[in-house]
Each structure stands twice: as structure tokens, then as C-alpha cells.
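User: Predict the structure for this protein chain, please.
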Amino acid sequence: MKGEKLINELLKKVKESSLPAELKGDLGAQLNHLSQFSSSSFYLEEIYRYQHYLSWLLNLPFGQVIEDNLNLEEVKKILDEHHYGLDFVKKRILEYLAVMKLRKEKKERMQAPVILLTGLIGTGKTTFAYALAEALGRPIIRIPFGGLASVDDLRGRSRLALESQPGMIVRGLIKAKVMNPVILLDEVDRIEENVRMAIMGVLVELLDSEQNSSFRDNFIDYPVDLSQVFFMATSNNIQNIATAVLDRLEVVEMPSYTDTEKAIIASKYLLPRALVESGLDIKEVVVKEEVWPLIIRPIGYEGGVRTLRRIIYGLVRGIALKIVKGGKPPFILDRANYKEFLPTYLT
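Assistant: Here is the predicted structure, written as C-alpha cells:
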């Protein structure tokens, strides 16, 4: 019978998997119990539901971890390549990593710090988290809290429904293929008011070292060890974050940028990146040093560089169009001609 064949295939997959022995035993017993009801009209439906459940569970990377790069000089180099300045922030991060390195050398279990980067929009909080993940050699999973509608988004839904699935935490582990990725809890201050306290309760469980070694996802319905995850969080402010959550976070403030710093970031980081991503050579566009203040000042006060980034990408797209239409690089922007290259809304 088709159902019996499916049961045997699922038993084989469970047996050959790297699941914990206890879980393997439970699954085997459940599948064997299910096979006794082959005459029931609900038999195949239940098997398909179980097959859907195992398709997620068998991909959870139990026992799979990636080795951290704790060479602090290399970490600092990578952070510097991605972000100008932020010396205080980088120093704090390196201090945490130094502790992790010492504990590892003593063969003590490492509990990664839970860092909250807080600061104005555009100060580089999210991109800094990505740079740190790259420096450590860990994959990164981003969970945007601005769009969370319920606790189930994090914790998953019961597997009784065929279309149900794990929550974003477990799905992140499956995507990362290791049990110790960086999980970025992005904009934790932007949770909707009607679900804020419930989600804050889940955050306490995620971030508390006494609880996160046995996190319960409603779909998986088996303790998942999150103790090796490197959690990071970002926020624009801390007013909307519950005290119980803040108590479990190391708050690191991201400073605003001065006009001088913005000019350096624009010329050394944003423009070269925009050129590469747009298919242009970095030698094809030259912006004279005198031009950057003329671009930056009219933006008005902004702690970060988000608007400046949009302007630069708009400028580069305009130059790309000129080249496609037959324009010959290099294009040199100076005080006399820079306005003709800016996006139209700025001219």
C-alpha cells in the first residue's frame, strides 16, 4: 500500500538522520503507531502531515556548528573595511570577542554576548551586524521585528495544520545550516503595540542563557538549543524595549556622523560600492573633494548616511545611463558641473 511505503521511507530517513537519539526513538515510535491505522480513512492525510513535519525537522542542523574566527586583528580589519570610524563600537565588540577567545582557550563553554546596537536611522547598525558576522565567519539570519504580527511568527504554529511551519528562529537555523549563526533581531523597538508584551516575553526566553538552551518551537515540539547562537539586536531607541529584555542585552550606542565623516564615508565606502554594484569601474567616476560638502550640507541634519547613500546611487545610475547613451568616461565632478549629475529632485 502507498501509505505503508511512505511510512517505511520516513522511518528510513529518521534512522539515517543526525537527529538526537531520544528524538529518533520518539519519531520511530510515532511512525510505527501510525502504521497500525492503515485501514482508517484519515491514514494517508495523517502520513502526509507527518511527512511535512519531518521535511522541516530533518533539515534542522542538530550538532552542526561552525568554528569562529577569533583572530582579533583580522576581525578589526574586516570591520574597518566595511565601516569608517566607530572606534568605540569596534573596541566594545573586540572586548567581547577577547573574552570568548580566552574562554575557548580554557575549553570553557562560550556564551556569546547579546549585543544591542542602538542609534539613529542610517548610522550603520544593520550593516555592522553583517560585517561582524562576516568577520566571525558565521552565517547571519535577519529577523525584522517591524513586521511581526504575532508570537507565532517567532515560535511557529502547531503542526496539526498541513500548511503550518516552524517560526522564524528555527527556519533561520535551517537556512544557516548550523546551530551557531548570528541571528540579527532587527529593529526590536518597532514591534506593534498589540503584540509587544507577548513578543518581549519570547525575547526574554531567546536571550536568557538559562532558558535558550531548550527553546520550544510550537511546530518542532522538541527543545532546540540556541545557546551557541550569537544574537545581535538593533533599535533606534530603547524606550519601547521591555526592561526584562534590556537586562539581558549589552547596549552599544552607534554615534551620529559629522559632515567630515560623511564625506570620508561617501568617497571611500559608498561611492566605490555603488560603482561596483552598478557595473562601472571605480576609475570611471571621480568626485572632487570640494564637491562632497556641497552634496552633504543641503541634505540637512541627519545622524546617518541613508539619504546620502540614495543620492550617490542615483548619481551613479545617471552616469550609467550617460555611458549607455554613448558618453565617454571618466566623468569628473567638480564645483562647476556637479549639479548636472545629481538626481533631479536635488537640482
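The mean pLDDT is 91.
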